[in-house]
C-alpha cells in the first residue's frame, strides 16, 4: 500500500483498524476503502478532516507544519485555534476540519481555555465545520464530567480566562480525546442522527448525546483504572485507589477486556492484569 498518498496525507496502516470512517466522512470523496484499507484515489484538498477524525490517529498530514506534533507545539504558545480563512491569530489550520479533540485537550491543559475560530456554514470543506462543532460538544461534555466549566471552550468568541486544570484532570481529558469509541461516535454523529442505520432508523439528538455521554464516562473510567493498575490488581484494591464503586469497576473492566486492554482472572476475587 502507498505510504505517500500523493503528498497529501500519510496513513499508518499498522495503526489503521479498517473502520472506514475516514472514507465515509471525506468531504471530497478522495478516500476509498481498497481491500479493506483507505487510500487516496480521488483529489484530496488537504482539508485534514480525516486526520482530525481518524479513530486511531493513523492519518497524518504530509506537510510537516500540519502534523499533530507541529500543531501541538503551536498550541503551547497560545489558546486560539483557527481556520486560516477566519483568523490569522494563534494556531492556524488550513481548515477547521483539521481540528482534533486532542488539540482542544492540549490547549486547555496548557492555558485553561481555548477559542476555536471557524468559518461555520461558510466552510469550504463542508461538513468540516460541523464536525469541528461535534468535537467541541464532546469535549464540553468531558469537561463537565471532570468537574470543569464547558465555557472553557468558545467558538468564534474570545476565550474566557480559567486557571489550568490539574495534571490528573488534563490527563483524563486527553484520554477522552484519544478514546476510539468516543472518536467514532463524534465522527459518525451526522450519519447516526441524520441518516440512521442500514434500516434508516434514526437516533434523535438527545439519544445520541446520551450514548456519547456514556462513552465519555467509560473513557474516563478506563483511564482511571489503567492509572492505578500498574501490572495487576484486585478489584478491591482498584476501588480503594480510585474511589470507584466495585460494580462500576467490574462493568468497565468487562469493556476493557472486550477492547483487549486487560485480562481478568481469579475466582473468589477477580484480579485485573494489563495487557502490554
Ligand atoms: S478512520 Fe483511521 S482507523 Fe478508520 S479506516 Fe480510516 S485510517 Fe483506518
Ligand atoms: S485531507 Fe480532506 S480531502 Fe484529503 S483525504 Fe482527508 S478528508 Fe479527504
What does this structure look like?
By secondary structure, this protein is an alpha/beta fold. It has 2 domains: 63-217, no CATH class; 229-274. Helices cover 43% and strands 14% of the residues. It is built from 11 helices and 11 strands. A 4-stranded parallel β-sheet has the order 6-5-7-8. It has a 3-stranded antiparallel β-sheet with strand order 9-11-10. The protein has a two-stranded antiparallel sheet with strand order 1-4. A hairpin with a 2-residue loop joins strand 2 and strand 3 (37-40). Helix 3 (68-75) packs parallel to helix 4 (101-111). The longest helix is centred in the C-terminal third of the chain and has 24 residues, at 205-228. The radius of gyration is 19 Å and the shape is globular. The model has no long low-confidence stretch (mean pLDDT 92).
Alpha carbon gap, first and last residue? 28 Å
Number of domains: 2
Largest sheet: 4 strands, parallel
Strand residue content: 5-15%
Q: Report Rg.
A: 19 Å
What is the strand arrangement across the widest sheet? Answer: 6-5-7-8
* Helix run count: 11
Mean pLDDT: 92
Instruction: Indicate the low-confidence ranges by residue numbers.
Output: none
Portion in helices: 40-55%
In one word, what is the shape? globular
Q: Which ligands occur here? A: iron/sulfur cluster
Q: State the total count of DSSP E strands.
A: 11
Structural class computed from helices and strand pairing:
alpha/beta
Order of helices and strands: EHEEHEHEEHEHEHHHHEHHEE
